[in-house]
Amino acid sequence: MAYEMILAETHGPTAVIRLNRPKALNALCDQLMAELGEALRGYDADDAIFSIILTGSEKAFAAGADIKEMKDRVFPDVYLNDFIAKWEVVTTIRKPVIAAVAGFALGGGCELAMMCDFILAAENAKFGQPEINLGVIPGAGGTQRLTRAVGKAKAMELVLTGRFMDAAEAERAGLVSRIVPTETLLEEALKVGEKLASLSRPATAMAKEAVNRAFESTLAEGIRFERRLFQGLFATADQKEGMSAFAEKRPAQFTHG
Ligand code: CAA
Questions:
Q1: Which Pfam families match (predicted)?
Q2: pTM (predicted TM-score)
């Protein structure tokens, strides 16, 4: 598929998908989201790729769902076609997906970033759920994922008032893993990609699955799930290699088996 609204390229073991609709601040229209889904699925199936970075421009990660595309839609269409259901593909990717966010991450843009495994923020990043100003509410998980990430008080204020958070506030609140200088955002994300490519694939995939389970289960069930995955990893060659390499004071060479 030839892409028109995203750029997709690989940097060694890391795929970089750049949202590329600059005139609309990367507003997430149906075509852009279809292209994003296709690219994500392709890289997830590609054995040469270990992780995926999702980024935008310096001005905008994404300014939300495309308001102009949505404005004349009516309930039966929105309900039956459920265009946002297609966005959920992001949450089905098994490899790590890192959101590298500079500029605006608003509405669906903030929700898309939160569907990724973690968010690296540039100093100029701005996060918000301003849908209330449009007479609607977040529709791609904002009321749920933001609340889990930053707690009720801050999520409720942002969703009710549409106020934006800058990168420093987002880091203090736990929405982003860390802040990096805007000009080195991609470089920093690629360093994470290099690190991930040096690790065991089964361990990485299970680590992601286990952390995500924390959002879907009780503590006791989550801990049982984690324990089984931990025990299961003792059936892998990578566990033998990783622990032997430590004991022998040498770097591990994982074979992903
Ligand atoms: N949808 C469609 N077009 C958008 C857009 C969006 N979400 N955000 C920006 N644009 C367009 C603008 O219409 C404008 O296009 P024109 O040049 O053709 O007029 C262009 O991008 C540049 O935008 P601005 O001139 O507004 O740029 P600015 O720097 O003055 O302001 C901004 C930047 C504060 C991000 C402002 O564009 C803005 O408020 N955007 C809308 C943010 C928003 O409400 N997002 C939520 C969308 S609803 C949603 O996401 C639902 C959901 O939960 C799934």
A1: ECH_1
A2: 0.97
Q: How far apart are CA 181 and CA 186, in angstroms?
A: 10
The catalytic position among 103, 111, 155, 167 is: 111
Mean pLDDT, rounded, for 76-102: 96
Beta-carbon contacts of 27 under 8 Å, excluding residues fewer than 6 positions away, are: 21, 62, 63, 64, 65, 66, 67, 68, 69
What residues are paired with 98 via a beta bridge? 53, 118
Length of the chain as a residue count: 257
Per-residue confidence (pLDDT) for residue 189, from 0 to 100: 98
Q: What is the ipTM of this complex?
A: 0.98
State how far the Cα of 168 lies from the Cα of 131, in Å rounded to an integer. Answer: 22
- pLDDT, one tens digit per residue, over 7-17 is 999 999 999 99
Q: Which residue reads 């849908």 in tokens? A: 131
Sheet with 51-55: list strands edge to edge.
6-11, 14-19, 51-55, 97-101, 118-122, 178-180
User: Which tens digits make up the pLDDT trace of 162-203?
Assistant: 999 999 999 999 999 999 999 999 999 999 999 999 999 999
Residue 216 annotated to the active site: no
Give the model's pLDDT for residue 49.
98
Domain made up of 200-248: CATH architecture:
Orthogonal Bundle (1.10)
Q: Which ligand 1 atom lies nearest to the CA of residue 108?
A: 50
**Domain edges within the chain:** 6-197, 200-248
Average per-residue pLDDT in the chain?
Answer: 97
Which atom of ligand 1 is nearest the CA belonging to 65?
50
Per DSSP (E only), the strands in 21-180 are: 51-55, 60-62, 97-101, 104-106, 118-122, 126-128, 165-166, 178-180
Q: What is the CATH number assigned to the segment(s) 6-197?
A: 3.90.226.10
